[in-house]
Amino acid sequence: MTHDTCNTPGSGAARRGQRGFSLVEVLVAVVVLSIGLLGLGALQATGINNTNNAYFRSQATLIANALVERMRANPKGFDDGAYSAIDSNAINCNAPPNPYCAQRSGAAAADCNTGQLAAFDIWTAVCGMDDGAGNRDGGLKALLPAARLTVNCPAPCGKGAAHALKIAWSESRKGAAMNRSVTMVFQK
Fold first, then answer.
1. Backbone phi and psi for residue 184, each to the nearest 5 degrees, phi listed first
2. Where would I find the H helices in 3-133?
3. With the C-alpha atoms ordered 35, 40, 41, 46, is the resulting torsion angle positive or negative?
4. N or C, which terminus of the chain has less Cβ within 10 Å?
5. Do the Cβ atoms of 171 and 157 come closer than 8 Å?
6. pLDDT 10s digit of each residue in the chain, 188 long?
7. Alpha-carbon span 40 to 112, nearest angstrom
8. How far apart are CA 65 and CA 74, in angstroms?
9. 86-89 LR contacts (CB < 8 Å, sep 24+)
10. Which residues pair with 184 in a beta bridge?
């Protein structure tokens, strides 16, 4: 009786074919893992980008709300049209309004009329609060990329007229710049 030992379990021939992974299997595993890691990296980058864009929208909304509250606190300036036809591109942040209608560097706030207070409110929304030493806190030009504030009032802009306040900025989405804006309409 002869026996063939080539295919019996435990023989050398059967063990030789099952000695671990082949180079092709390892390369396929590395490629699959690499694609997964690239996808994870892209997901992380998209998440960071969306977080930044949400921050910009939040800041624009907060600045718009703060300016509307300042307009509400200055009803005479609002009725006189001191908050109409505003464009932040015409505002110089290196030249604080004179008089400065808020306390800074230990100096008392100036006594401002309603028109001066409106000019101060707009400058503060665009440029932020100045501490007197040239340092500023907030302001849409510092917080938003390529930011622009406009306040418009349809003619005749008088007592009780609606004011459209718009804050526009540029944000990045999928590598391309996109213009975004927040618009509020305020009527006293």
1. -130, 140
2. 12-16, 23-73, 75-79, 114-127
3. positive
4. N
5. no
6. 555 555 555 555 555 556 677 888 889 999 999 999 999 998 998 888 888 889 999 999 999 999 999 999 999 999 888 998 899 999 998 888 889 898 887 778 889 999 999 999 999 999 998 776 667 778 899 899 999 999 998 877 878 888 999 999 998 777 778 899 999 998 87
7. 56
8. 14
9. 86/122, 86/149, 86/150, 86/151, 86/152, 87/148, 87/149, 87/150, 88/122, 88/126, 88/140, 88/141, 88/147, 88/148, 88/149, 88/150, 89/148
10. 165
**162, 185 contact by CB (below 8 A):** yes
Q: Provide the 8-state DSSP code for 88.
A: G
Whole-number CA gyration radius for the chain: 32
Residue 32: CB atoms within 10 Å = 10
- Give phi and psi for 149, each to the nearest 5: -115, 130
Structure tokens, 1: 């009786």
Contact 98, 116 (CB under 8 A): no
